[in-house]
Amino acid sequence: MIRFENVEKWFGSLHVLAGVSGEVKRGEVTVVLGPSGSGKSTLIRAVTRLEPIQRGRILIGDVDVASREININRLRQRIGFVFQAFNLFPHLTALGNITLGLERLRRIPKAQAKERAIQELARVGLADKANTVPAKLSGGQRQRVAIARALAMDPEIMLFDEPTSALDPEKVGEVLQVMKALAKSGMTMIVVTHEMGFAREVANTVWFMDEGKIAESGAPGLVFGTPENPRLKRFLARDGDH
Amino acid sequence: MVQILQDYWLLFLVGQYPHGPIGGLAMTLFMAAVGLSLSFPFAVALALARLSPYRWLRLPATAIVHVVRGLPLIMFIFWVYFVVPLVIGRPVGGVETLVITLVVYEASYLSEIIRAGILGLPKGQVEAAKALGLGYFPTTFRVVLPQALHNMLPSMVSQFVSTIKETSLGYVISANELTFAAAQVNNQLMTRPFEVYGLLALTYFALCFALTSAARLLERRIASERGGGLSLAAAPA
Ligand SMILES: Nc1ncnc2c1ncn2[C@@H]1O[C@H](COP(=O)(O)OP(=O)(O)OP(=O)(O)O)[C@@H](O)[C@H]1O
Ligand SMILES: [Mg+2]
């Protein structure tokens, strides 16, 4: 479903992605771990061309993300993206955040878009917050609205960039729960996170990134049970009990 | 001063109206409001052009803004006063001249305010819109501009204050506004310029001070709104 082929990217002279290859199969969840600055965000942002890459290819099905032939906005509608900072539109209500895409991109009439949006809000447990603006929601609620906003576009793939890192510890669970349910429903997901428990429980594959490469990958049992890469060992020793 | 106010307050307020053309403070406010409002769409267009990735849009827009900002308003007033009649083939009154001039002039200043408002938005806003698959126009008109304009409301009120003061230059082309009214009163009384122009100064000051205070209040309210907005806790270790 998503294939990385020798992906390379530079920020100026900084080699942020130094040849990433890997595949995420349909319906599978890949968790990306790694120290700060290892290129995790850049990698998943590249999947929707929020960051262009300079070498290699990223394929969604058989579509090359970098291709100038494709309509990038169409492609982005097939891929949901959830940000660490939520990035909700503060001038719109929870409902408005979700209907914007439906009305403008799916050309769904207002009343129907509203109905659909409320369904999505109900799915993340926030049907009662439809008319609340983001400023009046807690962090966990904001992130769940952001997830609902992405899901409303009926994506085939969901990308998460540290979705719980900006949350108070007691709000992390509610967001992870939504993500677990999503994984169970068969969504193809790439999740950058430090939540080891989530990785263990939900991931089909774990990628450990270091210095712009996938330094180790495999089933969570293997990666956490018998890590080989010395940096991964150190990373797990420090971070493992999260 | 009180005597003058008692005799001439109506002239200060609305000019000769209803026996002649409307003028005075009413006309001052009218010209400032209409000038600034009409300049608004041009200002948005200029701001967007200046932020465009395309050079052929960015360069001319940047040039226009710099040229306008680098020249005194009175010069534009003369240009419009003498050139527009030649172009359209009929004479143009003082009020029209001043409004046209203000549209051109304020568009540049307002565009800088709007541009700053757009640049001041968190990068995540445009990214979130892009990630949804929204194109340039829905992103700009549904996500970016509503927020940028809202945040810049106080600056726009300040710009309105500047515009009010600028309309006093309409006096030189006989636009029938507040300063013009004061000059008329002064001409009738002949001997009391200090009081007349003191009154004029007081009127401008009261108006502009009130508006500036309103802008400050608005600024505080918007700041506190946004304060409750995005809060990014530190990432965990
Ligand atoms: N827009 C940018 N311009 C320049 N350098 C950047 C930019 N974005 C990221 N970088 C750099 O690229 C490297 C990889 O960044 P990236 O955000 O992908 O790391 P990360 O693994 O997500 O880290 P973190 O865990 O801190 O989020 C870092 O050194 C970062 O400073
Ligand atoms: Mg990151």
Short descriptors:
A: alpha/beta, 6-stranded mixed sheet, 9 helices, 10 strands, B: about 240 residues, mainly alpha, MetI-like fold, disordered C terminus, binds adenosine-5'-triphosphate, binds magnesium ion
Structure described in brief:
With 242 residues, chain A is α/β, with parallel strands linked by helices.
* Main sheet makeup of chain A: 6 strands, mixed
Going by helix content, strand content and strand pairing, the class of chain A is alpha/beta
Q: What is the name of the CATH architecture of chain B?
A: Orthogonal Bundle
Question: Largest sheet of chain B, described in full?
Answer: none
**Residues in helices of chain B, as a percent range:** over 70%
Report the uncertain regions of chain A.
Answer: none
Sum up the overall morphology of chain B in one term: globular
Count of distinct strands of chain B:
0
Shape summary of chain A: globular
Name the poorly predicted regions of chain B.
228-237
Please state roughly what percent of the residues of chain A sit in beta strands, choosing from under 5%, 5-15%, 15-25%, 25-35%, 35-45% or over 45%: 15-25%
**From the helix content, strand content and strand pairing of chain B, which structural class follows?**
mainly alpha
CATH topology of chain B: MetI-like fold
Amount of helix of chain A: 25-40%
Oligomer: heterodimer
Order of helices and strands of chain B: HHHHHHHHHH
Quickly count the domains of chain B: 1
CATH superfamily of chain B: MetI-like
Whole-Å distance between the termini of chain A?
Answer: 30 Å
Q: What is the count of helical runs of chain A?
A: 9
